[in-house]
Amino acid sequence: MKDKANLANTLTASRMLLAIVLLFMPVFSALFYAIYIICGMTDIADGFIARKTNTASDFGAKFDSIADLVFVSICLIKILPVAELRIWIWVLVTMVALIKVINIVSGYVYQKKLVLMHTTANKLTGLLLFVLPLTIKTVDINLTAIPVCAVATFAAVQEGHFIRTGV
Fold this sequence. Notes:
- By secondary structure, the protein is an all-alpha fold.
- The protein is 79% helix and 0% strand.
- It has two domains: 1-82, no CATH class; 85-167.
């Protein structure tokens, strides 16, 4: 049973390591996209394996959230400098980021612990964020960023509500 628990966490760790490798890849190159997609697949697989093998844990959920944060942060570091975003998209992205930081602080204040929620809205936001770079070469990012920012804003506000109300 221990090997099954390790498998999910090993996939999570591999996502973190592969995300770091992305730092050294040319953005939007074939190798960048290949590693990017593998990272996305490990994100789906680790949770699925943990649930199917009854090895899901608080540690695994937090580890998954940290791996997601590393992956998203590195993708932002690589993609945002080359994306031609309009100023109002930057404002929306900054607003969502601030709400997420407030949520982390609120989790410590209200629940005395790190609270990283895996709500449906957060999962949808993650999916949309994952697909966004895959479309950047064919669709104007300023158009595709609108629904992503809308869903991300809703998810962040909902998460803050859940943290403050203990739901």
